[in-house]
Amino acid sequence: MGSALATQRRNNHQSLAPELPRDFLGISLPEQPNKYYFIIRGQRIVLEADSSIQTIMEKLQSYKSRVALYFEGFQYQLGDFQLRVGKVTPTHSDNLRGIIMEVEYLPLSSLEKSRQVMEEFVDIWQEAISKRSLPGHFMHIEPSFVEYGLSDHYSSQHTAVQYATVMAQLIATQSVQAARN
Amino acid sequence: MDVKHPLSIQQPMQLQEPPAAASQNPNPPSSTDAPPKQVALAMERLGQASRLIADVRLGADRLLEALFIAAVPHQRNKPLQLFVKEDASMRQHLQDLRSVGRQLEESGVLNETLRSRSNSWGLHLPVVCPDGAVVAYAWKRQLAGQAGASAVDRTRLALKAFTDQKRRFFPHLDEGQDVQSTEPASKKHCTSKDLWLNYQEELSDCKTLSDILTRLEKEMLNLKVLTYERLDWFKRASSLPASASENPLDTSKDHGFHSLSKLRTVSQSAAATDKIAIIELFFPSVFRAIISLHPAGSIDPDAVAFFSPDEFFLTLSLGDDSGWSGCLVWKTSKYYKSEFDSNLDAQLHFVDNMFPFIRQQGGSYIHARGFSVHHVFRKISEHAAMALQHFLGVSSRTALYSIVHWICCYQTLFTKVCSKCGKLLAMDRKSLLLLPPVYRPYRHFSTLQIASTQNNSLAKDQGLENLGAFHIGCFTEEL
After folding, report:
1. What is the pLDDT averaged over residues B237-255?
2. How far apart are alpha carbons B377 and B3 in whole angstroms?
3. Does the model's pTM come out above 0.90?
4. A33 vs B: CB within 8 A
5. How far is CA A83 from the centre of its chain?
6. How far B64 CA sits from the closest chain A CA (Å)?
7. What is the mean pLDDT of chain B?
């Protein structure tokens, strides 16, 4: 199973409204096959729409796809924890852009109540990983869900926002590395 | 989604057993039977009774299922046939149950003398599980204890007679010696007994159910207490959970359930209190605990279970009746589509396409003897069952008060680190699961309760924090 994330850049039509966003992120999640999510990071907007919105957007031609990433891997169950580990690749090539791991604690839905449990799990994970001397390390950036208007109760919109943050992070590190080379 | 119920093929085999067994043994046990044989007979009959009760429960479930099917349009004859069949088998079960009950009464297991004796010994009715298993330790002890008790009584009388005679005929031997109590072991506990008596007095105002729950609501912040009659609970459990942002009390108003505040304000609430059989303790975002009372309206808890606050109330079961299961799945998914939230909708859609033989049943595993799908809550439920038995064994009068306060200690479940190893998550060696500290000690819980009630300045919440939390591996029995 995999998630697909695409950035779309606005076509350079004559724009009447200059404050329209230049680009946005679109994401589809495996646990929500009928939905498509839009995220505009600059303005902290997340939108949940039906998956048919993609065909509408194609027909409108106001935005075109710039970069599309595919997150694909395996799902594991460790007691009450559900893990998804996968690789991040652009849609039509095999370059590995990174490795993604999604941790879900099934019994709880509250961000606040599960915070300690999640942090401790990640600590245990990092400790186990450090013994393996893998190149690179896992980074977790928690986006500010409140700014996106999301509540304490976890939902797929939270997931979409997290993926958007991850994507931005990937692109940022990629361009830094490209600049170095 | 978890597949929770066993295959329905197995049920018919069970249906046939009890009637045959009940008719085989009509003669009452002779009084010349040795106590062990009486115990064995009584145990066997209790086993039969519990199987019959399980069958009655299943029959009730099937009747409700048939009602459910009847509510769906386009079904004609099937529900009627089911009703008739179930009606006949239910009547037979109830008849058999009555005859087993009569036999138990004749053998002296259920009559008044034993019941009053059982109260004075602090022993309780056996726990009957939904799968028909009987946890009959207390009864077995009691019945076997009759034989033992007579020996103890005789010894005690003999010792008393001896000391009396010794005092009468050999007074000089008694000088300088205190009169020995016939129960020297109790001396060790006399100080804790005084405390215990004070504790009992302290709780003398908590005699009724509403007293206990009122006091609890006052003492605990963040806790929502809801009470239900048994059938109301089934209805609620079969409906979908409210979304997290909805206040559970609002939901209860919509569906007409009894909430505690309603009980206090409505004038004809006295009758309703008598029928309360289920108490739900809800700590939002942490857990939901269900306590079952038996009999309804009393303060005798008989089962407790923990669940996730967002656990789904709907179960899926494998349908065996290929004749109508396909039709039902289609109808049901259309029926539910408008009511489910988008997440569940997608999952059911997936399930419907992948497993066309699954029958979606309007039942529920969320009840006081059910088990959560999450390991953490399953472990807590197991531990809570032991704690409940302990509290019942210590004093049946304060058992509900104790178990309810003990449950409230779990509000720190996902935040409090283990008192032994100092970490939140630990790997349980036996089950290879990462779990937070799921054990809370219960053996000396009453002592801690006494300490906190005497120290009025300490809020109940804080008092209970001193209890400590332990991982499964960090917990030892002495705690």
Report:
1. 41
2. 17
3. no
4. yes
5. 15
6. 30
7. 67
Q: Do B434 and A35 touch (CB under 8 A)?
A: no
Per-position b or e across B29-59, b if 16+ CB within 10 A of its CB: beeeeeeeebbebbbebbbbbbbbbbbbebb
- Measured between beta carbons, the chain A residues lying within 8 angstroms of B377 are 107
Q: Spell out the alpha helix ranges (H) of B25-170.
A: 35-71, 77-106, 112-121, 137-169
Cβ-based neighbours of B102, under 8 Å, separated by 6 or more: none
Residue with tokens 């330790």: B137
Residue B33: pLDDT band (50, 70, 90) is low
Contact B285 A109 (CB under 8 A): yes
Q: Which residue of A has its CA nearest to B285?
A: A110
Which residues on B lie below 8 Å from A114 (Cβ)?
A: 414
- Given a contact cutoff of 8 angstroms between Cβ atoms, the answer to whether B408 and B462 are in contact is no
- Angle B190-202/B445-454 helices, nearest 10 degrees? 60
For chain B, how are helix, strand and coil distributed in percent, rounded to 5? 55, 10, 35
Of B130, B135, B140, B137, whose CA–CA distance to B51 is shortest?
A: B130
Q: Taking CB atoms and an 8 Å limit, are B425 and A114 in contact across chains?
A: no
Which ipTM value was assigned to this complex? 0.84
| Domains: count for chain A | 1
Map out the domains of chain B as residue ranges. 37-112
Domain span at residue A44? 2-180
Closest CA to B337 of B326, B350, B346: B346
Distance in angstroms (rounded) separating the CA atoms of residues A70 and A88: 6
**CB-based contact A88:A171 (threshold 8 Å):** no
